[in-house]
Design a protein that fits this description.
Helix content: 55-70%
Number of helices: 6
Number of domains: 1
Distance between the termini: 17 Å
């Protein structure tokens, strides 16, 4: 997953988003709200692609994830 380090993972887990499956089902707006509540240092994270990244990982689509991450770097 691009953009989720150990501290953000902890914040998400504390909010009940503790698996790739749950992350895949969580709208970006909800993820953004969780991080904003955790403090300004987390609020700047770009969460838009996290649910899509998680869906690809849950599906085992490593090529799809690689393509998505490459497109995000452009």
């Amino acid at each position: 997953m691009s953009g989720i380090g150990p501290k953000i993972a902890t914040v998400l887990a504390e909010a009940g988003i503790d698996s790739l499956g749950r992350l895949a089902e969580t709208p970006a707006e909800e993820l953004r709200a969780v991080l904003e509540r955790a403090g300004s240092r987390f609020a700047m994270a770009n969460v838009e692609s996290w649910p899509q990244q998680a869906r690809l990982l849950v599906a085992g689509d490593e090529d799809g994830l690689r393509r998505l991450l490459e497109s995000l770097r452009r």
